Amino acid sequence: MEVPYSYLKEQFSSPDAILADVKKLVQSGDFTLGKALEEFEKKFASYLGAKYAIGVGTGTDALRLSLMAAGIKPGDEVITAANTFYSTAAAIATVGARPVFVDVDDSLLMNPGLIEKAITKKTKAIIPVHLHGLLCEMKKISVIAKKHDLVIIEDSCQSLGAMIEGKKAGTFGLTGCFSFHPLKPLNVWGDAGMVVTDSDAVKDRILLLRNNGLKNRDECEEYAYNCRMDTLQAVVGNHLIGDLDKVLDAKIANANYYDKELSKIKQIKVPARNSKNRYVFHNYVVFAEKRDELIDYLKKKGVTAKIHYPIPLHLQKASKYLGYKAGDFPVAEAQAKKIISLPVHQYITKEQREFVVKMIKEFYK
Ligand SMILES: Cc1ncc(COP(=O)(O)O)c(C=O)c1O
Questions:
Q1: Distances in Å between the alpha carbon of 45 and those of 85, 186, 198, 218, 266?
Q2: 3-class DSSP state of 80
Q3: pTM here?
Q4: CB of 83 sitting under 6 A from ligand 1
Q5: Distance between CA atoms of 135 and 33, rounded to whole angstroms?
């Protein structure tokens, strides 16, 4: 049996309805900051329960523009997790600020107990990353941010639809940042991203920053970027957003099955979960003994498993100038050797997920 990690072929096997709207867009010429984008921004804000949503080019743009709108400047320090996707640190670094990493805990996410030790006079913001569709401890992080007068920018790129006691990821901070990359929970036909915020001032600044600093056609307030979300991608987004919760529920059902079955295998450890949270399992990640051998075994049996991510950020070449070394974030480093991501997408059948568990049991026998 084949159990692929990717779902794109199945997801867009009947694209006619989307293509019909793309055709209308092409015929209207409404490509830039068009009506479909406005519609998508409204739907997105309403889905999140946020006041504003602003479409930008990528999730990385969402983070970078959020940092700029929050007033982060060259020389400032921004705290984030050592095990995030590279873009989080890239956004911090490319606005001229210094990424400061903290270690994670057994939930796979930023350990709030370590944040205060990382705060210096230069610290201006924290970017908690809700990696894998999991959820950071936003209550604890918010208390620390308030105490030290720090801005929170949530990297929610992998956690659209996740909730902490009913409140959506991305609505706790000054902004929440989302990606619509093809491998994300809501995935368009290329790159796109979104910033959500309840702040009028932040919304106004991001509207400027994404559009060359233009106040109107002929007046430029500040030199900025061109990173608007394409209207064409918003056409795709408008088609997908209505079914988002159905997609997430299917993934959650697969993850719940894995949690139940894999917790019976002593060589597998399921990360700590909080029963009050709605995790959306962008990746389904557990800790596995003999991880690399297990991945090879599963591959031979037709199951694709992956590692997100094999090298923590402080050990990347790009981080060399920050002066970190092996051993600085022992939990993230140890986890990088044990984590395995199993196929969890919405098209996995009952038979497929049972097969995955059967093959894991067979491997450890
Ligand atoms: C955690 C995280 N942050 C940021 C990004 C950046 O998003 P994008 O690829 O749309 O720039 C991604 C996705 O790639 C991500 O997974």
A1: 24, 14, 10, 29, 43
A2: strand
A3: 0.98
A4: no
A5: 32
Per residue in 28-85, pLDDT (tens digit) is 999 999 999 999 999 999 999 999 999 999 999 999 999 999 999 999 999 999 999 9
Ligand 1 lined by 84 (C-beta under 6 Å): yes
Instruction: State whether the beta carbon of 341 lies less than 6 angstroms from ligand 1.
Output: no
Cβ 286 vs Cβ 269: under 8 Å: yes
DSSP lists the bridge partners of residue 316 as none
Say which CATH topology domain 8-242 has: Aspartate Aminotransferase; domain 2 (3.40.640)
Q: Whose CA is nearest to atom 7 of ligand 1?
A: 59
Same fold, 8-242 and 244-364: no
Angle at 206 between CA 200 and CA 207, to 5 degrees: 90
CA–CA separation, 118 vs 292, rounded Å? Answer: 33
Output DSSP code: residue 33: S
Phi first, then psi, for residue 230 (nearest 5°) are: -65, 135
The alpha carbon of residue 288 and the mean position of all alpha carbons in its chain are separated, in whole angstroms, by: 23
- With a 6 A CB cut-off, is 57 part of the ligand 1 pocket? no
Q: 270 — alpha (psi -120 to 50), left (phi > 0) or beta?
A: beta
What tokens were used for 247? 């997609």
- CA 3, CA 355: separation in Å to the nearest integer? 9
Please give the single-letter amino acid code of residue 171: T
For the chain, domain boundaries? 8-242, 244-364
Please report the pLDDT score of residue 9 as a whole number: 87
CATH no. of 244-364: 3.90.1150.10
Looking at the chain, how many residues does it have? Answer: 365
Residue 320 DSSP one-character state: G
Distance CA 312, CA 41 (A): 33
Q: Cβ neighbours of residue 19 under 8 Å, at least 6 residues apart?
A: none
d(CA 322, CA 100): 8
